[in-house]
Amino acid sequence: MFKKIFKFSIVTIISILSLFKTSYAEVINEIKIFGNDRISKETILMFSDIGVKENLDAKKLNKVLKNLYNTNFFKDVSLKIEKNILLINVTENPIIQNIKYEGIKAKKIKDLISNNTILKSRSSYDEFILNKDKARIQSLLKELGYYFPEINIFTEKLDDNKINLTYEIKVGDKAKIKKISFIGDKKFKDKKLKSIIVSEENKFWKFITNKKFVNENIISLDKRLLKNFYLNKGYYDVIIDSSFAKLVNKNDFELIYNIKANEKFYFNDLSIDLPNDFDRENFEEINDFLSKLKGKTYSVDIIEEILEELDKVTLLEQYQSVSSKVEEDIVEQKINLKFIIKEIETRYVERINILGNNITKESVIRNQLELDEGDPFNEILANKSINNIKSLNFFKEVKSEVIEGKVPNTKIINVTVDEKATGEITAGAGVGTSGSSIAFGVKENNYLGSGINLSTNVSLSEESLKGEFTVINPNFRNTDKLIRFSASSIETDRLKDFGYKTSKTGFSFGTSFEFLNNFDIGVGNSNYYEKIDTDSNASARQKTQEGNYWDSFLNLDFDLDNRNQKYQASEGFRSQYFVDLPLVSETATLQNTYVFKYFTELFENNISSASIFLRSSTSLKDENIKLSERINIPSNRLRGFEIGKVGPKDGNDFIGGNYAATINFTSSIPQILENSENIDFLVFFDAGNVWGVDYFDGDDEGSEIRSATGVAVDWLTPVGPLNFTLALPVTKADSDKTETFRFNIGTSF
Fold first, then answer.
1. CA distance 186 to 478
2. CA distance 261 to 234
């Protein structure tokens, strides 16, 4: 680059000195061009931007040189004036005949390099641009995790001033993350922060995941996730000061995040500033909500929620041309917020341009827009549209630009996306006191760019084998309704111990949609063919259920979700009700499930929860329900007892019941093991019961309440997350099998 600038400067100085020894400017009567072979005289004149009868002074001369060099067509340009004739002498750059990339086998990497470099086949060769392309290739490979590539460039001269260009690239091994560290005033343990970010530490068994490689795009995402986490925990002026990869040894890095959480902030006075013609009564509900926030921990998600509610009210009242902003006034660690709504001059959306989507269909992106061409322009809806596109998680980056339209009082919105890989392969394994399991899955979140989610999962445990294929369209035909289809097969083999085996295969489909704010309704249909086999080890009553069954159910789901966040909630509640109504069923089994969970923070960095679980499975025809339809208490809802080893028995087999109920309390104690970065300590109390046996009148011990209290430890070990509980059963039935100690450890690949 320096050589080219130096050369250009010398040529400019010499040309100026030679041209203007006696006069400052001359009128050009004729222009003659020499040395051009491939580039026509007309093209050179067009780019030089000079014509006959023009005055040529030093400034214009400099501009002519710049114009011609900027075309990249010429290796050398010289200018000379003789008797009012401008002489332009050029030496053309060679033409690139072919470009080869040697050493790279992956087509997607070759395509990435080819699409992001300037020099192409049939373009002019330029060393300055070549060096820029080389630096760009190094940057692209670094983004993919190849931190130490070797790039050599060779040129082969051909006839007619042409060349072949060859890139010899040795990418080497990908840079791996040996360790992830968090330093500074971070407030939270490493275990918690590692659960927030995407990057993972490399382990020898992690042969599938790409999250173990150093990737600058993922590191940037990590920083955004960390900042958002702290902002929602009240740390208003948090600084993710730096993130850098420190080379530990060859191709192994330590990823270090330097965090300055600073002090926690709280909401103080919150108000809304409205235009005079707005009806205040429409905003009473929001004002009530704002008054309740005083003294609560600051959260950026709550501010987004308030802005969204303001957006809904203003649009409902037909105030379409508005803008909103938030004014902040900080007094010590308290934040006063004023939400300002302003009416603006009505402008309309002339055009919305979608750029950069090579895979994702434009309709998928446009489905996320809250504005359409011809609508009044609304800043709130424009920003919401961009957030909707980002939430698809199909793109590395989403940028927007609003410019003046060609028609008066209009706007043009340019949306530029940078696509990323949307496929995932997952594998995992677990072992514990309750047995071992393995799982494998393949997922594509944007199938053929259509926004459709495909997933396939297989899991194997000591008693069961399950496979499932699922298709989800989150926005079917622009209706804002999710539709889903799944096919599954599950086999539970208990022949050896209890004499029966069930095989269940079928499919289901359905839809779900938001009916009210935070309240979703789902409607579906499930259909299964089931086969029950028994042998001599089965009881006489179990043998009566041997045979083939076909069942069809109407599925209804109701979900009210008022948690402060979907993942790792710390405040709010979620209430869910599921019912399966029999349409075609020999046993006419009706199943109801209700789950309620409440979250709160009792003290600093504490998360406490209380939950209720209720389930029933009964026949509308007073028949005996099938073995696979009987209910056992989920393992995480009754600690202190062996999984599935409480409640009704048929011989030695715990067969489950027609009814089950549990209540659970859990609270974290961050003060215990406070200095241990990868360990969380919890206390719990579980109580529950499973009862009811429709196919015999034996003793199901239905009146006995099972309960236990104890402590639990979640430990992020080098192998994977380890969970163990130490429980003390408080009440139980005589036949129950207790379990004082339980542990499970799992990992992903």
1. 43
2. 9
The 3-state secondary structure of 50-96, one letter per residue: CCCCCEECHHHHHHHHHHHHHCCCEEEEEEEEECCEEEEEEEECCEE
* Amino acid occupying residue 234: G
Structure tokens at 218: 């993922």
Task: Give the DSSP letter string of 638-695.
Answer: STTB-TT-SS-EETTEE--BSEEEEEEEEEE-TTTTTT-TTEEEEEEEEEEEEE--SS
CA distance 389 to 292: 32
| pLDDT, tens digit (0-9, with 9 covering 90-100), for 113-170 | 888 898 888 888 888 889 999 999 988 888 788 888 899 999 898 888 888 999 999 9
CB crowding 186-208: b at 16 or more within 10 Å, else e: bbbbbbbbbeebebbbbbeebee
- Report helix angle 41-48 to 58-70, nearest 10: 120
Closest CA to 174 of 134, 152, 142, 198: 142
Angle at 272 between CA 266 and CA 278, to 5 degrees: 165
DSSP three-state, residue 144: coil
Reference 140, options 119, 110, 165, 166; nearest CA is: 110
Tokens matching residue 118: 């300037």
Report the C-alpha gap between 670 and 192 in whole angstroms.
11
303: phi then psi, degrees, rounded to nearest 5: -65, -40
> Which residues, including other chains, have CB under 8 Å from residue 580's CB and lie 6 or more apart?
526, 553, 554, 555, 589, 590, 591
Cβ distance 86 to 31 under 8 Å? yes
Residue indicated by tokens 């009704």: 648
Q: Of 477, 478, 476, give the one whose Cα is nearest residue 510.
A: 476
- pLDDT by residue (tens digit) across 315-372? 666 555 677 788 889 888 899 999 888 877 788 999 999 999 988 999 999 988 988 9
pTM: 0.72
655 Cβ contact list (under 8 Å, min separation 6): 627, 630, 647, 648, 649, 693
Judge whether 118 and 129 are in contact, CB under 8 Å.
Answer: yes
Token pair recorded at residue 543:
């043998």
User: Is 718 exposed, middle or buried, given 0-12, 13-18 or 19+ CB atoms closer than 10 A?
Assistant: exposed
